[in-house]
Amino acid sequence: MKLTGNTMLITGGGSGIGRGLAEAFHGLGNTVIIAGRNRAKLEEVTKANPGMQAVTVDVTDPQDIVRLGNELPAQFPALDVLVNNAGIMRAEDVTKHDLADAEATVTTNLLGPIRLTAALLPQLRARDRAAVLNVTSGLAFVPLSATPTYNATKAALHSYSVSLREQLRGSGVEVIEVIPPYVQTTLLGEAQATDESAMPLADYIRDTMAFLEAHPDAKEVVIDHVAPLRHAEANGTFDQIVSMLAERSHELLGG
Fold first, then answer.
1. Distant-in-sequence, close-in-space partners of 202: CB < 8 Å, separation ≥ 6
2. Among all residues, which ones are annotated catalytic?
3. Residue 80 predicted with pLDDT over 70
4. Domain membership flag for residue 160
């Protein structure tokens, strides 16, 4: 993937990893459009980054995604990169039989990227060169038992990315999977933002951009902090890491 000269749409760009990626790409001179539901958050980011633009979209609403897909070609005809970053992460006690969090997670984390990719793919395929970046998680490869549906959606998005890449082979549209480790954001709550066991957000963004620069043809962005999870099964450490994560799961479920 080329790192400059792009026109990029980044979902979930109002905070966390989405904002970090948006600011990093903006700093390289790309035209960056951040998307999300919270207009105030988006405006806070664009105000801090003159020249960055914002559009609102609810990735849980299929009709709103269709609307955005219809509007973007006229607003941003040069759009050539989609970053599917928006997502939610919630602890779930499966013994309580409450599916609200599970269903919301599937709708946001899996159906959202699938629907938005489908809506924008005609525009991307019309470009000489384009890219779809899907942000998954190290937990797609080794699950945290306290967040079963989150893990499952990220594993599914990994598989979807592989299939999408194969179907688009030769089309000029790259499909790149971005695989974050545990990062200091508020994805799982305010405490995560200061959790010393999590990777500082600025460090994660720095290492991710460095990886993309060093590996322009990479299919997956696997920085050192997440490599043990990504390669756990191949390395024979899967069961060991699952057990290591069990204590964290116990804390999240209030045990």
1. 20
2. 150
3. yes
4. yes
Closest alpha carbon to 54 in 76, 34, 27: 34
Q: How confident is the model over 192-225, as pLDDT tens digits? A: 999 999 999 999 999 999 999 999 999 999 999 9
Question: Given a cut of 60, is residue 255 above it in pLDDT?
Answer: no
The string of pLDDT tens digits covering residues 142-153 is: 999 999 999 999
Is 9 in a helix, a strand, or coil?
A: strand
The CATH number of whichever domain residue 15 belongs to comes to 3.40.50.720
By residue range, what is the domain housing residue 19? Answer: 7-252
Whether the pTM exceeds 0.85: the reply is yes
Number of domains within the chain: 1
The two structure tokens encoding residue 187: 């994805």
- What backbone torsions phi and psi does residue 9 show, to the nearest 5 degrees? -110, 125
What's the pLDDT score for residue 248? 80
Instruction: Please state the φ and ψ torsions of residue 241, each to the nearest 5 degrees.
Output: -75, -35
- Beta bridge partners of residue 135, listed in sequence order: 178
User: What does the block give as tokens for 153?
Assistant: 């959606």
- Check pLDDT > 60 for residue 167: yes
Residues 6+ apart with CB under 8 A from 33: 7, 8, 9, 10, 13, 52, 53, 54, 55, 76, 79
Helix (H) or strand (E) holding 11: strand 7-11
Give the whole-angstrom CA distance, residue 69 versus residue 65. Answer: 6
Alpha-carbon span 108 to 254, nearest angstrom: 25
